[in-house]
Amino acid sequence: MTDIGKAGTFTLGPRVVKRMGYGAMQLAGPGVFGPPKDRVGAIAVLREAVAAGVDHIDTSDFYGPHVTNEIIREALHPYPKDLVIVTKIGCRRGADGSWNPAFSADDLKAAVHDNLRNLGLEAIDVVNLRAMFGEHGPAEGSIEAPLTALADLQRQGLVRHIGLSNVTAKQIAQGRAIVDIVCVQNQYNLAHREDDALIDDLAAAGTAYTPFFPLGGFSPLQSKALSEVADTLRATPMQVALAWLLQRSPNILLIPGTSSVAHLRQNLAAAALRLPSEALAKLDGIAPTRPT
Ligand SMILES: NC(=O)c1ccc[n+]([C@@H]2O[C@H](COP(=O)([O-])OP(=O)(O)OC[C@H]3O[C@@H](n4cnc5c(N)ncnc54)[C@H](OP(=O)(O)O)[C@@H]3O)[C@@H](O)[C@H]2O)c1
User: Fold this and answer.
1) Global model pTM greater than 0.90
2) 20 to 30 Å CA-CA from 124: which of 40, 88, 156, 228?
């Protein structure tokens, strides 16, 4: 079994987690809606992740909805002391599987209680407020009212730490004036590098950055350069994509998603993969850094 500690650790608020974690979104049914075809397999993935040393799992009660959290609870409760579960709120699923903004104070309170109930927790380690202003990626809009409501739930002891997801630098600054922000979760990977400057700023501030879709999400990454580097290193393209993220910045925490134990093992093994400088240069060329 890979020593995932080889990828190092970073802080999530006062907690220290291994940089190689796991994202649970793939454990719900197709379209992240309804139950999975293989619930036993989903439970096996979670147990394997924790047995391999994963201490950071990303989830949401809107995966399913409820399904993914119920599976996490069945697989892992009572939770290991060192496990940090991060969830996100700000969205409600429609009966057709649609993803709809749910930002009122009542929506957010209900979402926190849904997570607590379905995960079997008295307090949630980290809750990300997931902004929903744009259809494709972060878009400007005030997060003051929903973040103030979430901070209130934190004061009540239901939420330990707060992060932001799908946000701009301006929204992070606005958020920091309201409450301590322990992590930012935006889309970022080898081919999708809009957040290059933001990642560096967050690293300088000691704030964790957790890229979602680290492997490309619903359309896993495909690139000639990626395949060539993988062949040279006798690794898989997905392992190289994860190793590139680990080497990109020390504040990056990985949460690759999979519903397969075989893929999980491959992904965890990326914790021990070091990319030489020629490989990094070739991979950087897939989507050059954006000017700030
Ligand atoms: N904040 C947000 O708005 C937001 C949005 C999306 C996701 N997230 C979080 O980010 C996490 C990661 O994102 P994600 O799961 O959507 O995307 P991802 O990690 O980029 O990729 C998952 C996809 O890659 C496949 N895959 C995984 N490992 C593989 C391997 N070794 N070889 C080949 N294919 C592999 C998976 O299929 P298999 O199941 O077949 O392995 C799945 O189709 C989620 O679990 C969720 O917690 C957050």
Assistant:
1) yes
2) 40
Beta bridge partners, 57, equal 22, 85
Residue 122 φ then ψ, to 5° = -95, -20
Catalytic positions, please? Answer: 63
Mutate to test the pocket of ligand 1, among 164, 258, 267 (most ligand atoms within 8 A of CB): 258
256-280, pLDDT tens digit by residue? 999 999 999 999 999 999 999 999 9
First to last CA, the chain: 41
CA 283 from chain center: how many Å? 22
The CATH code belonging to domain 9-219+252-258 is 3.20.20.100
CA of 155 to the centre of ligand 1 (A): 33
The DSSP string of 179-247 is S-EEEEE-B-BTTB-TTHHHHHHHHHHT-EE--BSTT-TTS----HHHHHHHHHHTS-HHHHHHHHHHH
Residue length of the chain = 292
Cβ < 6 A, ligand 1 pocket: 23-26, 58, 88, 130, 165-166, 185, 212-217, 220, 238, 255-260, 263, 266-267
Give me the long-range contacts of 139-144 (CB less than 8 A, separation at least 24).
Answer: 139/168, 140/168, 140/170, 140/171, 141/171, 142/174, 143/167, 143/171, 143/174, 143/175, 144/174, 144/178
**3-class secondary-structure state, position 84:** strand
What value, to the nearest 5°, has the Cα angle with vertex 182 and ends 53 and 164? 105
What does the domain layout of the chain look like in residue ranges?
9-219+252-258
